[in-house]
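Researcher: Go.
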Amino acid sequence: MKKILFTLTLIVLISSFSHARECKTGDIKGDAFIYSDGKKVKVMKGTDIPDPSNKIIMIFNKGGWKVDKKWGECKDHVPKQLGQISGTKINGKELVLMLNGRLHKAGGDDGYGCGWKFKGAFHQPWYDCILENWGISKRASVNKELIDELVLKGTPRNQIFMSGLSCGGIDTLRHKGLYPEDFNATIAFMPNCWDRRPDTPLRKMQIDELKSFERIDALVFHSPVDGEGDWRSNSIWMKKDLGDIPGIQWIDTPGHTGKDIVVNGKKCKIKDKMKGGWEEAWPEGKEKLTSKKKFIKVDKKLYKEMKKKSAGHYLVSYSCFSYYHPMIIEFIESRI
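Model: Structure:
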């Protein structure tokens, strides 16, 4: 009997791979299931997948205030690295990573459009413009569309997880808080989604909303050296503000070892450098700024040292993050 079950499982897995194409060059457009061995990436376009009732689908949402229609090259870091969890068996079901290819439908302004309109940024008219076009608040409906399509094709809601990086992490946490029955749980990577002005209203708006939810079932990875320009976006501040929300499990990734980040003894060799994480102040007498560089670095020596170091924000995109893959799998297994 066990031999028959093993054979059937193997057939299903081979069937999934046979529908996927090896991805060497070219943009990934639209929704796509991703398989990776850490070197080669295979892509299955669309929302059809063999034996959907026995799939656990982890949807991944890209970051950014505004998402482009194209996902990027097949060889991009997220498909190559996080795609390695695909094919994992959890309680007899196959876990598969899926890229959400329809977030562009939410629209939004990336900050530059409103900046050009008002010939400057970080002042009230600029914030009003951003909020008028805020795409993050519209992403839950886009996510719903994709989830409902997967359910209609045979995957139970309890076997669907939402994940995302940066703004993608924020929007999936928000979705789970707003509509807890839509999917099983959230897996957020370095969630933050605002600008760098001290006391920015965009941060307050998002933090206040997340704190208003009774519960958010989620696994959240964060970094003490996140390195994005977003004001107070590292794990210290995020846990201080959101740490008491029922349902959230926090995993802190390491800080710096020299200029790099080391995970379980392995250097991450992260190319992305720190864009923030030092204290800044608003220039006295200025109503608006025409560049992020106009913010005053309170400790110039610290700023010079930090900007040479690796940023933890994109850690999920590097091979050293594979150390945490079992934690993602264990979290999913605990909820199936």
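Model: Residues 1-15 have pLDDT under 50 and may be disordered.
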